[in-house]
Fold these 2 entries.
Entry 1:
Amino acid sequence: MSSGSNSLIQGVSLSQWVGGNAWTDTPWLAFAAVLGGTALTIGFMSLTAMVLVYAERKIAAHFQCRLGPMRVGWHGILQSIADSLKLFFKEDIVPTNTDHLLHALAPALCVMATLLALITIPLSPSISIANMNIGVLFLSAVSGLGVLGILLGGWSSNNKWSLLGAMRAGAQIISYEISMTLSILVVVLFAGSMKFSTIIESQATGWWIWRVPVVGFVAFFIFLISSTAEINRTPFDLAEGESELTAGFHTEYSGLRFAMFFLAEYINLFIASSLGAILFLGGWMPFHIGHFSTFNHLMDLIPPGIWFAMKVCGLIFLSMWIRWTFPRLRVDQLMRLEWKILLPIGLVNLAIAACLILSEYYFFVWNPL
Amino acid sequence: MNRTELLSTVLSLSTEFSPREKTDRPAVLAPVQGLTDLMLKLRDHSELSFDMLTVATAIDWIKEGKIELVYILISSTFKHSLQVGALLDREKPVAPSLSSVWAIAEWQEREIFDLFGVRYLNHPDLRRLLLEDDWNGHPLRKDYVDDFMLERPWR
Amino acid sequence: MEITGMTAATMSNTEVPVSSLDERIKFFQNEPQSALATQEYFVNMGPQHPSTHGVLRLVLKMDGETVREIIPVLGYVHRGMEKKAEYIGYRQQVHLTDRLDYLCALMNNWVMADAVERAMKIELNDRILTLRTIFAELQRIQSHQLWWGVFGMDLGAFTPFLYGFRDREKITAIFEDTMGARLTMNYIQPGGLMYDIHPEFPRKVKDFLKYFKPILNEYDELFTGNVIVHQRLKGIGILDGKTAISVGASGPVLRASGVSYDLRKSDPYGVYSKTQFEVPVGTTGDCWDRYIVRMQEMRESIRIVEQLIDNIPEGPTMVMKFGAKIRIPEGIYYNQMETARGILGVMLVADGTEKPYRLHFRTPNFNNLWSVISMAKGLRLADLVAILSSVDIVVPDIDR
């Protein structure tokens, strides 16, 4: 990382910039930087959500033999902007018997948790907002905050369907957090660090998904399932369960507040996918095959940011593919899957990973020569 | 079993059955008292085995001052059918509930009660089915009038 | 205005107690017995709910996610059809039947038309019967396509819904060519058909069958083989044959319970007796069996149409003078047919005039809904949704 003091793009993380000399020298500059950084993050967040919503609608449409949005802009590319504008100007309906304070607080909590989780994600070696040394721990902690918003939203709506949805969400997210953390821990063990940039750099010689024979893949698989459950997407969308609970926890929300839940949902999708890419698919590390140096050099030519984006997009596409193909699980089946299947497998997997590390003989190096 | 055989079997089952005219299928009339027992006999008879109560409805014969309950029974094994009728007093229509014979009767009797005002004895849950609880009158009676009717003789 | 009809019956019968919805709910209410017991609560599923398929209202007594009691509340689309029928002529009755089960309007038309024809002893020619059979089977396929889509959606998979509608549209277009209508056709009239078929009709039907046969396998690939679908459907909502008969279920619901009772076989009408087809029957009577029976029925319907479409006999499509006033001799006539959801019966009470003295519709969904209550008790809310969808209810058919 360079030490330039005036540009984000040249490779100084915001925290370094704020925490460095700028803070002590000129407080107004630091304030402006914090403000600018927050604005940038929120801007990035909104933009990502819009792109994801558009992508989801298009992908879903093509899965379903239709075209999706086609009217606003070229192939409906401005549809998300139109929709966001519409949501901005819609009346915010608050039912009479709600707990007004909590009802207003819930979507904000959801977005806040998402925002906190988002800042830990490094997008490329030079773009990261908070590259902290306990990144994994921090992300696990704040992503659990989101469920608080969902619970509050369902509770304060004074609607039995909402409450059912919120309770389902609470049970589901808390349960699946265990499996998700167990699968993340496998990678933390191998990389020996909780810092995301270090985890990525540890994969320079091979991605964790195949560098450790079976363990890595099993961990990735568990991560994929539990992260899908964590962000409430089909086949684990019981909290919304459109055909069962009408709309679940956000039944009583409209306008901007609904938009905030929506935003949080899509950013969570982005976070989960980038987490998968960082932990198991090598983050911004290019794809290398053993000693094919020409191929490897060619791969190196692609900038790291593009590599990261490609991996994230692939995982997001996978998630959407699952969503538009699978039906929903039932609530007891969901719990059974977690506590009786994923959790034991995750624990055994973690134990095996620890044994492999102790034996110090685990790297899968493919050498054709 | 053809039509005449079926009818004679049913008539021989109990003396209380009497044949009914002007129907397109074998039909008998039964007295209201003891209707449940007669229906049980029809259901459990080995050659008849009318195990399906397909239709349960009523007809308001206003000129005779009667309400006729009409049951159409079908046997799922022999595929034959029988119509059983029971005449009630129009002013005070009370009939025994058949919900202990066929489970579906509970549901159908609620509809008949709703639309004809026939009260069922020993019915587990006698309340209106299609109309609101506080609706006035029973619309399928021939002398029923209200403001929403197609023909308004009083206007 | 003095209301005359009700007084006599309501006044003199007070010794038989009448309940109300509030009393019924109170009847099921009970306070938790101990501090450890969970508190049960009531929740309204409907009249506006995505998976009650219309304005059906179920008052559920729930214990957490578990459904303890179901109190159906009907009448939100009650249109007084049976009363209305007493004021209009026999030919007009067909227009009422479209609005019963709007997803198989043609079959409903046929039942009504056939009831009048049988009462008047009108002999139809083979062309009319063959065409009616073809239309009925096409309608059965169409109805099941929609059911399949909606079933998928109720289980949480949205994609089947659009696949189902995509293919349903093809049949709708075929109907539109001939009848000019897409949903409420009232095409089958007493005495024949409203007008002759479109000249392109046989070719289009053949094209459709050619298109749809591989599509059915695609349905299987997308939905039937999915492990979550198996988990959600197998062993859920079991209705054994005996109960099914007792609760008056009919159609695929009854056949899935292992009772092979299909009016097309047991009491053939139309030209069904001349065609070869199987009646698919389930074994356990759970949601999975109902699903498989319906999927299989689509294949059998294709078979029937294939046998008939190539040799539609020549002849007039109306044997009765159109516009003639229909007078049915005095008597009670009951006629029933197998629609996509079960037995639709029409009971005509004629008094020799142009209007029926009384007309009763025995609708399949009315009876099938009753079976849901016995099936879903003690299961989860999500199972109730799956059961409702597997029974394939259409609410206007229940309320009439």
Entry 2:
Amino acid sequence: MRAQKPSPPLLDRRLLPNFWDFVALVLIVGALVLVVYGGEQINVPLSALDSPPVSLDPANLPEYALRTTLRMLTAIVCSLVFTFLYAALAAKSRRAEMVLIPLLDILQSVPILGFLTFTVVFFMNLFPGRVLGAELACVFAIFTSQAWNMTFSMYQSMRNVPKDLEEASQSFHLSGWQRFWRLDVPFAMPGLIWNTMMSMSGGWFFVVASEAITVGNATVTLPGIGSYVALGIQQQNLQAIGYAILAMLFVIIVYDQLLFRPIVAWADKFRFEQTASGTEPSSWVLDLFRRTRALRALSVPFAAASRSISNLQIALPFRLRKSAARKPSRAIDALWLVLIVAGCGYASWKVYQYLSATLGVTDVLGAVGLGLITLARVAVLIVLASLIWVPIGVWIGLRPKLAERAQPVAQFLAAFPANLAFPVFVVVIVRFGLNADIWLSPLMILGTQWYILFNVIAGASAFPTDLREAASSFHLTGWRWWTKAILPGIFPYYITGAITASGGSWNASIVAEVASWGDTQLTATGLGAYIATATTAGDFPRVVLGIAVMCILVTLFNRLLWRPLYAFGERRLRLG
Amino acid sequence: MLDQVNQASLLEIRSLCRSFPKGSGEDLVVLENVDLTLRAGEIVGLLGRSGSGKSTLLRIIGGLISPSSGNAQCRGEPIDGPPDGVSMVFQSFALFPWLTVLQNVELGLEALGIESSERRTRALAAIDLIGLDGYESAYPKELSGGMRQRVGFARALVVHPDLLLMDEPFSALDVLTAETLRTDLIDLWIEGRLPIKSVLMVTHNIEEAVLMCDRILVFSSNPGRVAAEIKVDLAHPRNRVDPTFRQLVDSIYARMTQRAEPKTAAVEGLPSTGVGMVLNHVSSNLLSGLIETLAGAPYHGRADLPVLAGSLQLEADDLFHLAETLQLLRFAQVSEGDIVLADAGKRFADLDTDARKKLFAEHLVNYVPVIGLIRRVLDERPSHTAPAARFRNELEDYMSEDYADETLKTIVSWGRYAELFAYDEQSELFSLENPH
């Protein structure tokens, strides 16, 4: 089992940021500025919101948990719709692909919690004075944390559909629509489901973070587990936080058992392999469902309907890419390029105009400096987490019985929103008067370190027995065993885990570098705190600047460190 | 009357050409001036080496790729996209792994918009015909290769095509399974139970072509042309050990190896043009093994290619590659279906490993122009290193990127065996130094 599958675009030989990355970055930051600008123009007081008050009564927790779960579900449905449209467009249209894919790539590294500021302003202006706006903003925040890797996975699958199946569907006269549902979607299914699961685990973090947010002088509180915890922090109620953690545990387990297990077990048939593999995923819910008669009978009309819908003879507007059948028109290409460059020019001019009105060069340099501090934190934390979890993961992974039991736990811990547990740490820091700059840092990796653990476990479990036997028969022990046998063996897995962990840590920095307990405020110096403080103060230019700097740093970090390592692992150290 | 005209020529191909864009400017011609007429009631085989464009031709007829020039008509209509009444069987089966056998077979009918009860009846009939009863609800991954290809046949037959296209349908199967499937198919064909009028099949297996086809078009390579048309008048079921059958196979072998000679002769005359030669990857172990086999009993330096292919259990195409490589390196000569070990080859067989490597290196530098070039460049440069890109570019002037890759891979592998140069895969650099 592998975590998030970084994509061929990631494995591109051109590792340095190129022209298209730049285009995408400018377009994204430009769009943000336009949204904020529009929002400010409408100038509706944010305090108009009348949200129902949250109370710390544990009896309310089930309802809050339900509300939180519903937000998650809404977001995942939106993500799926977005994925299907965006990936299909990018995969089928060459010109759309030129812009859409780099855009997606940058969006992946945008700190989602920074987004929150803009989206809250935007959606609340759409529905002034109503809870709906805040709800939508929250759903949108979760959506932005989920959609990108799902879309990437779908796009990649659609580009890598086996040629013979493509020819077969063409040769049997499948219409574009039929082909999409009969070939593209089923082929993309396993990757998409895996990425959806990963997205869901990431999503809990953001739903909790975005239920209670302060922008300028407005505080938005949506009933849910996140706002329950926020209130608990305000009232210094450690017991309430304990309840919330329990509720969250319960919700995640239920979600996994009732939703994802059955889907994974059902989707096993979509795995593209020509020989049956040893173990098949199973789910008691799915088995139960398959055994019932009434429920099955209910599902028949749905199956029939979906089948006839997928059989509609609709020719899709974009034609299939035929191999060198027609040469693309140069003139239209050039026109398209001019359009893109013009869009970029406009966007960068807007950004410049907006930022230069209030900010100077010193602000930019300051933000970059803070960014480097956060960068250092992320790097140190990843190293520390690796030193701890790699040996443990290897130890577990080489013991199949143990690995079988430990793996779901590690995955569960990765899904658990660590920000729920932050207050517990903050209490300790406050009580012992520890240095916030140092001791707040571990919070950044609290939730994301598990990605390293479960990927290493997966890697060590997959390490071939014959290689282990060879190593021991050649008396490879100690340090030599680590460096020559096991570490290269798990390297691709480790890198996958570390990439996910590092991306998550950047995001978490926005909520981890600033923490409070009642009236006590703890702040660590860093870009995360910079963005968080600017958000609370409603200082939009600084938020834009902070996000842009973080985007650039994350992208550079990915391109210059993770991608070369990943490519190296895939090329040289992939076993089998 | 009209029907008769249509039946008379199911397929009409006139002076068809197809080229693909190449790394540098001009295009690579894969098919040149191909003519082909297909009538109802015959099985026609397209036989040729890999790279002779036969699969490309099949895909043009199947409407999957378009020709660069020339005329292609199916049932009197020009081919533009997959034509009606034509279906295809794939080498890799191309089954949808997420659909059951029945659903796979029904797929083609669904695309035609046939309603579900008729779909079911026809699919079950096709499954029954091809001997897949009982497997309807199985998924492809649960089936053996032979059963999977049966699904491929059922799926192609269920739409009742006039013309069945088969792209090396048996080459992914083991010998016994392939033979069973061939016989079953021919039996159904001669009993008139297949709902089709004609079959066009691509193969590189000479015996398979003689066993199944009424007519064989032999293709030459680079560019692909129809080199000969051979009628097979033997009655079905055909017997592989029948002398006329053997004779036919022998003569096709001779014809196909004949083609190879002018290619290397031209190289000898003009060494500088030889850089553009496509080198197929053949491992040095296989080459040594073949030389040893030829030198020993019972061949004593001379072997009949079909016999050799049979005893070594090699596909004709693979054996051709091996034989041609030996010929290119002047270790053997191929003529009229026989391979004869040259003096150098005999010497090679008697040497020990190090001496073999030396002899191999000598022949590489002298007879493979691009390897000679690489060695010269490495010797001349003060750094004694050269990037692979330099030679790749040169190769791509003559061949497609895929062939350039294959050729480069071959060069690296032979060069390493002969200890002519070292190659670092990560930096893509040739060098003279060997790590110690």
